[in-house]
């Protein structure tokens, strides 16, 4: 595999390279709406050469926002602004999807939040409502409605977040799942399968999932658990996106200092290849061509980059690609932020 390979992360939509803009919160939305800061942020990375953009976690309900200024996709009024994001990304040459998100107990808001446990007691949970199974499935339906809004906005795919301790990820862990109390992981993740199947069958938009692949904790998720999990969700998804975080994130034995963050999920990501033929995205503070090559040499399909692309919107073209690899699929020379001037006149 080569960094500048044109490949299909999702079916029937070719990405111009194997670099993905990681979904990172910008925290500038008002009532969930896209504004000009979002347009500039995502547009600059599209024109800067990113192959695939995953828009930050966008709340499927108001109380599902991570924080007050998180992006939203919980009402039809959001669609028009999201269309602007799609249009600027496509004009810059990127494939673009949006992450569907509900923070659960990790949502830090003044309004009431909702989850299925109060495990994350290091956070402010004074307004936390514990859901029953019926109420939980009502939120599952909001994921499906949000996927429909994403399709109306023109996104190429959606990504359902089931990692990092957010609401859906709690289903995977027996200790956290209070609505389906079973030792059988197939039973515990039935609502996740319901969401993915409903989107695939009713919305006709491609779906990926963001996962936490190993908790480094005996009570948590293990990479080997994904052999079964993938077999259950694979019929409904197009790719897997390995998160840098874990689910039981208040425990000391998580990713912190002992594991560092440099390429820290690469070996786990490579292990998933034994369980699926789906494309796999990995992450882990990649900031050089050599580091990206390490992932591709392990047959990882794509590398998600965050901090380096925050620092430099043109990182793909200035630091990863050679000049002869920048072909007509890159639009730097008609970049709306670039105005050519003839200084000889």
UniProtKB/TrEMBL annotation:
One of its GO terms (molecular function) is NADP binding. Its cofactor is FMN. Gene3D superfamilies: Aldolase class I (3.20.20.70). InterPro entries: Aldolase_TIM, OxRdtase_FMN_N, YqjM-like. Keywords: Flavoprotein, FMN, NADP, Oxidoreductase. Residues 10-317 form the NADH:flavin oxidoreductase/NADH oxidase N-terminal domain. This is NADH:flavin oxidoreductase/NADH oxidase. It comes from Spiroplasma floricola 23-6.
